[in-house]
């Protein structure tokens, strides 16, 4: 293959095409030729992946910038469709080559994935994928532009979260209702977008020969090591183990507030966050992003020189966009720039304890990327999502002992740890809710909005908190819209649950031996995507499990730890 220059512009198919032609037309006479083909295609993929990443980053950092949005959509419409056709041709060249069986074992996982991708590829799905991305981008633009006028200022939704932790209940209520009112202004358009996404996704599945988008996505996401039935087992385990604790925490909150019943501005259903039940001031671990970054550097250096140096590398390379602002897409993510081998972190910090946890979470993803950055092939570094979230969620837990860097006294540290542990117990039912919702949606693609609402409310009764929704029923019926994964990354959510169970096991090890836990973490993260999921778990001495007994053993230790800091 002709050398690809460092300044190669992969935003244009005209620039990419000569390299693609070389890979497709190249003479392949032996397994060594096949290995060279794989290596060269990986090199090209690094350039294209990084270009797509930078365009996506630019768009999400400024959703109101028409140029950035159009640059991203141009890539989606004019490069990705041609890339899909090329990838299928390349996959077939590799999988169908007579020497594929002579390749070394290191390629086994890659070939398994390639064969799966060949099975589901249909050219008629390419334009449907483009339409899907355009709709998702539109939804991100809607949510990214949401602000409210509150106490004399225009504020983003992340900034408004601070008021939901106020000890003044009337302030919380006013803040919550202002956010809900703003959301409901766009709820109909978001529902219309979601309706269209469901239709497109079902058509994609049918075109590929599947009876449901669920089964299509399990194959598309390379979920080789667990099944739909395992997900249902997870839902049941979480309901039996976590829901009694959620109700116990909420009852204590209700009693402390001297209320007959909680309202949605008294506790966050997803995270369990809210005002302190003893009326203490809300936790504020940092005043600005600069302070957060400086203290996190100190924190990671105290844990290990390796983690500290890795975090400092992120800062030095200026790959962080952390402050909330109008027009910025909601949420947070880590995006690995494959050619530069540099992680980029995006989030919306407003000075809250939850923001600190988000930054630690995304730092865990970045560490994972850096640990396996030595691997030669992009496919070897493309670790499974279920284990990617182990890297991030375990880092949240493993850093708890060092949170004192952010607080003035032990009481605040203990409150932060307790809040986080309670958040683990609250998050697992929310994960089960979102995953169960998706399974139902795509098993019933022709459902009406009324049927969707009915099923959503049944899940909230099953996995949610008992609350007074009087005068706010309309929002409750549409509260699923706030989970961006449903729009942008369908079926990506059970991974958080699987990973949380892995992270809790690593945390158990850390409670006994911090040094061993960090070594287990490093050993597993260095593997990238070179082992199957159960083997990645095993590399950190973790079990991949879904059953009630397994979940119960982990949550019982969470209960023990919660009692230690009360």
Question: How would you describe this structure to a colleague?
Answer:
With 566 residues, this protein is mostly helical. The protein has a domain at 13-121. The chain is built from 23 helices and 5 strands. A 3-stranded mixed sheet has the order 3-5-4, sandwiched between helices. The chain has a two-stranded antiparallel ribbon with strand order 1-2.
Task: Furnish the topology, listing elements before pairings.
Elements: H1 13-25, H2 31-61, H3 66-78, H4 80-95, H5 108-120, H6 125-144, E1 147-150, E2 153-156, H7 157-160, H8 169-207, H9 213-220, H10 228-256, H11 289-303, H12 305-316, E3 320-323, E4 333-337, E5 342-349, H13 353-371, H14 378-381, H15 385-398, H16 410-443, H17 449-463, H18 473-478, H19 485-488, H20 494-512, H21 514-525, H22 533-539, H23 548-565
List keywords for this structure.
5 strands, three-stranded mixed sheet, 64% helix, two-stranded antiparallel ribbon, 566 residues, 4% strand, mainly alpha, single chain
Short overview:
The chain has a domain of 109 residues.
Residue stretches low in confidence (pLDDT < 50, at least 5 long) are none
Strand content: under 5%
Main beta sheet: strand number and arrangement?
A: 3 strands, mixed
Share of residues in helices: 55-70%
State the order of secondary-structure elements, H for helix, E for strand. Answer: HHHHHHEEHHHHHHEEEHHHHHHHHHHH
Task: Output the number of helix runs.
Answer: 23
